[in-house]
């Protein structure tokens, strides 16, 4: 099961690489929004990269903290930086062994919360499923922004693998 989930994540990362190949830095970063924040698709992709990096960084110790992200702004402004980060994630994810050992996963890091109760049990498969869902969600937001700006990222970008399978079944059924 975990190997299939690793493959789904690798397919999503390949979609991001293909998208980055079609975008220039200006469209990727977008205009500066209110407060000087980026208004393009870059922040969403950087956010996804951050989550994969947290997963890979913390997996060996068995306690994944998705709130302790690097938030490297270069990844949301430069396609080449994002492309390199994704390539590194793909290589590291390909090395993950698909066992189902128990993990302790940080689900809430409110500053006033007791650190001992902020961790909850999970598994490798569950976290790989979460990464698929989280990434597809942000890809859907990316696709929406790109389409609003007159750029088509493709019909399958930002669509869940289960939905793509359903569409394929519907097409085959005629």
Give the distance, in angstroms, between the N- and C-terminal Cα atoms: 30 Å
- Largest sheet report: 3 strands, mixed
Derived from helix and strand composition plus strand pairing, the structural class reads mainly alpha
Strand content: 5-15%
Q: Indicate the low-confidence ranges by residue numbers.
A: none
- Helical stretch tally: 6
User: What's the total number of strands?
Assistant: 3
Would you list the SSEs in sequence order as H and E?
Answer: HHHEHEEHH
Radius of gyration: 17 Å
Kindly report the spatial arrangement of strands forming the biggest sheet.
1-2-3
Globular, elongated, flat, extended or rod-shaped: what is the shape? globular
Helix content: 55-70%
Overall pLDDT metric: 87
Question: Can you offer a commentary on this structure?
Answer:
The protein has 174 residues and is mostly helical. The protein is 56% helix and 7% strand. The chain has 6 helices and 3 strands, in the order H-H-H-E-H-E-E-H-H. It has helices at 2-22, 25-29, 42-58, 79-94, 124-148, 161-173, and strands at residues 63-65, 102-106, 119-123. It has a 3-stranded mixed β-sheet. Strand 1, helix 4 and strand 2 (102-106) form a beta-alpha-beta unit. Helix 1 packs parallel to helix 5 (124-148).
């Amino acid at each position: 099961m975990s190997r299939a989930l690793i493959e789904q994540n690798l397919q999503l990362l390949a979609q991001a690489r293909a998208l980055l190949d079609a975008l220039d830095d200006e469209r990727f970063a977008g205009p500066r929004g209110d407060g000087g924040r980026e208004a393009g698709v870059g922040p969403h992709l950087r956010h996804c990269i951050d989550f994969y990096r947290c997963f890979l960084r913390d997996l060996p110790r068995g306690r994944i903290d998705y709130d302790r992200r690097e938030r490297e702004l270069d990844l949301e402004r430069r396609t080449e930086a994002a492309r390199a980060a994704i390539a590194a994630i793909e290589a590291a994810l390909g090395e993950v062994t698909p066992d189902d050992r128990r993990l302790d996963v940080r689900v809430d890091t409110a500053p006033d919360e007791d650190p001992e109760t902020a961790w909850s049990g999970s598994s490798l498969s569950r976290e790989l499923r979460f990464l698929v869902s989280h990434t597809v969600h942000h890809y859907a937001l990316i696709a929406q922004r790109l389409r609003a700006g007159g750029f088509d990222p493709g019909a399958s970008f930002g669509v869940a693998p289960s939905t793509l399978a359903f569409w394929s079944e519907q097409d085959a059924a005629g």
